[in-house]
Design goal:
By secondary structure, this protein is mostly helical. It has 2 domains: 141 residues, no CATH class; 61 residues, no CATH class. The protein contains 11 helices and no strands. α2 packs antiparallel against α3 and α3 runs parallel beside α9.
Length: 207
């Protein structure tokens, strides 16, 4: 809900990087406090580069509204919280990443149940007739989301949560690039430089 609110208050290329750029640093703190994870200087530098580069994508050359930035940062906090919970949870499940992912998405049925309870079944099924293409894209988006989440859960079984989170959040770079052709959002030289910084951070995590 915070992410959708941030999208309404600003561009995709602003909201998404703030949300995703703030979370790796918070995950690093959470993993150290609750999972007792240690991190080396090079990896720490890589995480800082990734977070800083992603944040630069949002802030370069544009004014960010206070409401939009706050909503995006709250999204980053929630991302960090569930990432740490997932990292601890999948390790406690004895490596059952697929089962853990399935159980987590099972709880997502709460939202459509609440929607139907509030607006009725007709409000849910009317989209099949009024906007079939939107329903199709939503289904595809849901399948991609499940797959992406499952891959992250699988990676956190053995990898450090902060490193996995930082690499995951490089998606902010792709969001900025996707926003150019599909949403006609500008990607200037400063944003290209930020993308290079993010790539450098990813290399540090891989060393």
């Amino acid at each position: 809900m915070s992410l959708v609110r941030s999208y309404r208050r600003g561009d995709l290329a602003q909201a998404y990087p703030i949300a995703r750029g703030s979370s790796p640093l918070l995950v690093t703190l959470g993993a150290a406090l609750f999972a007792h994870e240690a991190i080396g200087p090079l990896h720490a530098f890589g995480i800082v580069l990734i977070s800083g580069g992603i944040m630069a994508l949002a802030l370069a050359g544009r004014h960010v509204s206070r409401a939009g930035a706050l909503a995006a940062f709250i999204t980053g906090v929630t991302i960090a919280v569930y990432t740490v919970i997932d990292g601890i949870g999948v390790r406690a499940s004895d490596g059952q990443a697929l089962a853990y992912t399935a159980w987590m998405f099972l709880f997502y049925w709460i939202m459509p149940v609440l929607f139907v309870a509030k607006r009725g079944v007709a409000a849910l099924t009317s989209s099949l007739h009024d906007a079939p293409m939107a329903v199709g894209s939503s289904i595809i988006g849901g399948l991609v989301s499940i797959s992406a989440y499952g891959i992250v859960i699988w990676a956190m079984q053995s990898g450090a949560m902060d490193a996995v989170s930082a690499l995951r959040e490089t998606s902010g770079v792709f969001a900025a690039l996707i926003g150019r052709p599909f949403l006609r959002e500008n990607v200037d030289a400063k944003r290209w430089l930020a993308c290079v910084v993010v790539a450098g951070g990813a290399v540090c995590l891989g060393l």
